[in-house]
Design goal:
This protein folds into two domains: 322 residues, Jelly Rolls, CATH 2.60.120; 123 residues, no CATH class. It has 17 helices and 13 strands. The longest helix has 18 residues. It is globular, with a radius of gyration of 24 Å. The protein binds 2-oxoglutaric acid (AKG) and fe (ii) ion (FE2).
């Protein structure tokens, strides 16, 4: 077998377990499909794929069936370079853990995006479309902005073509489009109601509470991946957590724990991290063999939810057309690494711009502004916004604390705290550490001192 490690699976996961076992220690977990069973999008965004013609009736009985497992296997096998060895066996093995019968698994694997519905509701929205086989001048996946309708049309045409192929062997000769509309802000950019409810486990979300209320923006995304489209190896934005709910297709994830990321970084000192981890990397390189078992593989089937903790590198390969809803989110469980990561951005940027200061191109007074501008441009985030988010969150806590519940005017405009939040003493100790670590510059010291005083008011 592949020899890679695995990710915990919880068919159901109570908040207390999630908090202690996964959220606080930042461990990934896969959660069963019951968690999202009432989501409207699990009904309206997907449908059973139906091929026109009389062979569409009982797809399971046809051993060369182009619409079930065989369909996926044939194409997965023809792209071995992308996949860990025996990926297919691993996928089938994994499916046995989640499905009582093959029939049940087939039913889920026949799910496909409801193209008509998505076009009708979100078709006019401009979305980033990645071409997974092409690179831009920085070596990232080439992207362009298109109307979602246009991307859906191409994805649907390819899916119909692939599913109509009778002989699995012949699939290898097709050039897959590997298009991937990703990071789509469908909920921010559409007036229709949200077709899901964030599960309690992930509602304590400082990032979306702040950006949605204060910046008219959000970190709620949708992804529609064509067969064998990919997301390269990365950590998430600002070192936040992510949560991904898959609605159709299968996502093959590879995870690298933060403790091994540094080791991998060292192996690639000059070139930087590879954009894709392959199985052969682990087989051919003695150094990599050492951490092989720490690298984890996960297959995410329709309806399942993956918690991707802060700081974990991960990459994704889509098998079949996949459709998923993701949030980037954060709270006390990852605020320290987020702070540290931002601090590192400022330090590295300041160092790289020292020449401007030394050569007198930028004055001492202006230097920190220039550093902030560069950090904002490259990293998309700054101390000002970071501390505004913390301040916003503390106002929420304060508004909910018994002393202020009836007196705070601002509580009207501040979204109430969710039910499932970590115990305040724990959160308070994390925030106390955060304020202690805040020594970047005078402004940071003064902001954190003010917030520290606010912290003391909260019961
Ligand atoms: O599904 C994907 O392609 C990428 C998802 C991801 O990177 C995330 O949820 O953090
Ligand atoms: Fe990610």
């Amino acid at each position: 077998m592949h020899g890679l490690g695995s990710i915990d699976y919880m068919e159901e996961c109570p908040y207390g377990t999630f908090l202690e076992k996964y959220l606080k220690p930042c461990h990934p977990v896969l959660i069963g499909k019951k968690l999202t069973e009432n989501w409207e999008s699990r009904k309206t965004w997907v449908r059973q794929f139906e091929k026109n013609g009389d062979d569409s009736k009982d797809v399971r009985k046809d051993s060369q069936c182009p619409t079930g497992l065989e369909f996926l296997r044939s194409k997965a096998a023809s792209h071995n370079d992308l996949l860990p060895d025996n990926l297919w066996d691993a996928l089938v093995e994994a499916s046995k853990q989640y499905y009582d019968s093959e029939e049940e698994a087939y039913k889920d694997l026949l799910l496909s995006p409801n193209y008509e519905h998505l076009k009708q509701v979100y078709g006019n929205i401009e979305v980033p479309l990645a071409y997974c086989s092409q690179k831009d001048k920085y070596g990232s996946q080439k992207r362009e902005n298109v109307q979602l309708r246009t991307a859906l049309q191409k994805l649907e045409e390819e899916e119909i073509m692939l599913r109509s192929i009778r002989l699995p062997e012949s699939v290898g000769s097709y050039n897959l489009i590997r298009m991937y509309p990703k990071d789509m802000h469908l909920f921010r950019d559409s007036p229709v109601s949200i077709p899901y409810e964030t599960p309690d486990l992930f509602v304590d979300d400082w990032l979306n509470a702040y950006t949605m209320n204060q910046e008219n923006d959000d970190f709620r995304f949708s992804y529609i991946g064509s067969h064998l489209s990919t997301t390269p190896l990365h950590k998430d934005v600002y070192e936040s957590h992510s949560v991904s709910v898959n609605l159709c297709g299968v996502k093959c994830w590879i995870f690298i724990p933060p403790s091994d990321a540094e080791f991998i970084h060292k192996q690639f000192e000059d070139e930087g991290l590879p954009s894709w981890i392959t199985h052969s990397l682990f087989l051919e390189n003695d150094n990599f063999k050492k951490i092989h078992g720490n690298v984890r593989i996960l297959f995410q089937f329709p309806g399942q939810t993956v918690f991707v903790p802060s700081g974990w590198y991960h990459q994704v390969l889509n098998i079949g057309t996949t459709l998923s809803i993701n949030h980037n989110w954060c709270n006390s469980s990852c605020i320290l690494p987020m702070h540290f990561a931002l601090q590192q951005q400022y330090e590295a940027t300041s160092e790289s711009l020292q020449d401007l200061l030394e050569d007198g191109i930028v004055s001492k007074e202006r230097f920190s502004e220039v550093v902030t501008e560069v950090v904002e441009a490259n990293y998309g985030w700054s101390w000002e916004r970071f501390w505004s988010m913390i301040s916003f969150q503390l106002q929420r806590r304060l508004a909910m604390s018994s002393l202020h519940a009836t007196t705070s005017d601002s509580s009207k405009s501040i979204p109430p705290l969710p039910i499932c939040v970590p115990p305040w003493p724990w959160e308070k100790s994390v925030l106390t550490d955060l304020f202690r670590n805040a020594k970047g510059n005078d402004e940071e010291i003064s902001v954190s001192a003010k917030l520290f005083a606010l912290l003391e008011e909260i019961q």
